[in-house]
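Sequence in, structure out. Go.
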Amino acid sequence: MTAPHVTFILNPAAGRGKALHIRRRLEEVLRRSSLDYTFLVTAGPGDATVKAREASAGSSVVVAVGGDGTVNETAAGVMGTGAALAVLSEGSGNDFARTIGAPSRPEAIVERLHGYAVGHYDVGRAVLTHADGRTDERWFFNSIGIGFDAAVARRVSAIRRLRGIPLYLTALVQTIAGFAPRRGTITAPGVTRSEEFLVVCAGLGKWEGGGFKLTPDAVPDDGLFQICCAVGSSMREVVPVLPFTLTGRHIGRKHIVDLVTDRFTLALEGGFPVHGDGESFGTDVTTVEVSLVPGALKVVLPPGR
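Output:
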């Protein structure tokens, strides 16, 4: 399949400004190509969603140029339209990009758009209740994290000059000290479990945090989340397991609870931070209701996938 019209949406802040630096090269490659395209640059948070929704009316493919945050916003605009999402990977984490095999070179994304397959990926919906009683609805396309990994994601935004696993490892080390669990109850079909929770991560894709394989058995189009919970009275109990999250070999080890479901509710005794696709959904969330919308996002994949 070849895209008849493509809209590129670039986040100039993605990848610590790396996406902005690649803009000239990308535009040069596009001018030399035979693609019919429009090139847009976001002006601030939320703008990619607005631009993607508008672009989807006249484009068969909308390309997010950036990292997981840019992908999240762009996918929210593309979801439910006739357009498909593609990614030029230029962020700090790039976990969704790993899942779809997205390229990081302008030449490669142009080549991809001249011949690609289309997949239909599942989407996550979260309804959040905050400590002050507010509720809101958020969408995620790779993972939602509650607790320690959300605290790490917030720390990541304050660290400069690093990307990928080194960035997230640095943030992880800086976050461990003083992080305390929350008592809570997770409820899913056939499951009710009360624990001292340190992390609850529900994955549509396998990777989170710039390459940690937290949900190694997740499949993005099977209609299910894999949920990885780290439980215990302190981070010291879980630290020995953390190195295994790089390869996904933490599943089945002590202090790790593994669930597979299409929906769940987590009710906490006190507020906890929450992120979706690396973006903060709140710092004092007391209840999270998560459900799955099967096949709601069209994505551009390599031929043959």
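Check: The domain at 6-115 is CATH 3.40.50.10330 (Rossmann fold). DSSP finds nine helices and 13 strands in the chain.
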